[in-house]
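seq as requested:
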Amino acid sequence: MGTYDVDRHPRVGVLLEGLRAAGDEVVEANAPLPLDTAGRVRMLQQPWRLPLLALQLAGCWWSVVRRARGAAAAGAPDAVLVGYLGHFDVHLARLLFPRRGGTPIVLDHLVSAAGTAADRGLSRGARVRRRLLEAIDAAALARADLVVVDTPEHLAALPENARERAVVVPVGAPQAWFDAGRGHEVADAGPLRVVFAGLFPPLQGTPAIGAALGGLAADPVDVTMIGSGQDLEECRRLAAGNPRVTWLGWVPAAELPGVVAGHDVALGIFGTTPKALAVVPTKVYQGAAAGCVVVTSDTPPQRAALDGAAVLVPPGDPAALAGALRGLAADRDRVGELAARARARSEVRFRPGAVVAGLRRRLLG
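struct tokens:
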């Protein structure tokens, strides 16, 4: 249950697909809140906008409550999973399913409010606001019986009283990405086809991508950059000298897997913020499932997830990224080998059913 949006936040969709694939009966009580991650954090930074957030949230919650009560009419659920960005939704879940009823509340705590604000540079010099965001995180964690995070690094960052109630569940990729990657073939001639799709926050390190692309103008590397956001203009400025870069505002969620699968290489993230060093981003799982070579930053969680099935470069290093792409363009056999490795690893570890295995063990244990 919650106000999540599966198109904006594929993580929730992976959990739903995985639970259903495992044979669980899943009923949704969902009414998407029309705000993305940045919008929700910005609301919390600007107190005068909170009444608008409360109004929007109340409207969504009305629908969520009706659907949740309808689903529970046949009997109390075995568990309630509150979807990603559920910092407020978890309080509603706890109200509807109090602890005395015995139904565990599971909070998908993929991102913290305070951590996201810090990563995007939205909480600098605002001590009171930081404390507010930290209090929102703490209150959400306190309402949950089980807390879901995506990496061991994020588990270690939880407050001590929440760690023993936490389980690591990788982000994974929706089935649509595996379908798009079926039969994917790496081009053995012509330019190397590279794609990036994202929202351009600091975590993704897109200025480093832009600087790398600026140095590849004379190389046989065609690049498609998809999305918009905070660092887009800086990225475009740094890549301006390369005519082989195509910029797309966005691609509908249903079409994106096919678009990415039409490329040889999928770019991950290259940021240097604390959050960037602690995540394995959705786009990495998706790129591997789509049959692409994944090129991303060399960080402990990404190294552990990909384990020789990707090209890893130092975070925030445009020269290393440009060199990696140049090397792949010159060695198509290596491109084919890495793409096959990524796809094989994703089949075993990144499918929805595999992703939720740890969560189900904790719930059934």
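The longest helix spans residues 50-72.
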